[in-house]
Design brief:
Layout (H helix, E strand, L loop, with lengths): L10 H17 L14 H16 L3 E11 L7 E10 L3 E8 L3 E6 L2 E6 L4 E6 L4 H15 L2 H7 E8 L2 E8 L2 H4 L2 E9 L7 E6 L4 E11 L17 E4 L12
Parallel strand pairs: 6-12
Antiparallel strand pairs: 1-2, 1-11, 2-3, 3-4, 4-5, 5-6, 7-8, 8-9, 9-10, 10-11
Length: 250
Amino acid sequence: MHRRADGLRPPAVACRWRGFTAALLLSCCSLPGAAAGPEVHGEERAQLLERLRAQQQGIRSVRAAVVQRKRHPLLKEEAVSEGTLLLQRPHRLRWEVTRPHRLIILIEGDTLLIYRPDRQEAERRDLREDFVSRAAANFLTATMDLSPAELEKRFQVEVHREAGRTLLVLTPRSPLIAQVVASATVFLQDGDAVPRSIVVMGQKGDRTETTLSHVIVNPSVPEDAFALRLGPEVQVKEWRRPAGEVAGGR
């Protein structure tokens, strides 16, 4: 990676690096995209969202096993990864991929850490300084959190019903996210406040299916669950905003 004498990446390189980080985050948030059932409107829609809001009210944290299947027109085979997810409100997430390659993604407030143990490499970002990664992180946490108010703020929300479940079809409001993501569909079984699957459809024909199982609501969360001590052997890349670039990456 080429750097300037002041230690910063050249603007063009920094932009490409931010794009890679955003793509990594977005690939981590997601039934093949079957057609949704009929869309509901008016009072029925309001009642379904109010029921979801009431169910979400008592949730402080969620732990689950995760299997992710990714298909892309450029890939000959489906890419499958497995791991665990820990989510705690208001803005804490730990996504640990165990197979096929180890990867840990931590979001703690305004800090993002991506750690690749097998490579002994890590990347730390201040999301207040990085508009692209912040938008991707917000997309990831919003699709997992399912607070109706947050969803309406970040997406155009369609509500659909079909045999025993509700489908939320989310279209990103952020122009940056919309360049990559066409839609995300959240599948909620009746009586569940936590989605069992999320499908993200990309703008290039790619599809990512994320399935949650062994879901535990409000598990005991260790104090250090969202902290990661990196040894001196780990190469840590700290993202810094290039001089002359205003906050938000614009």
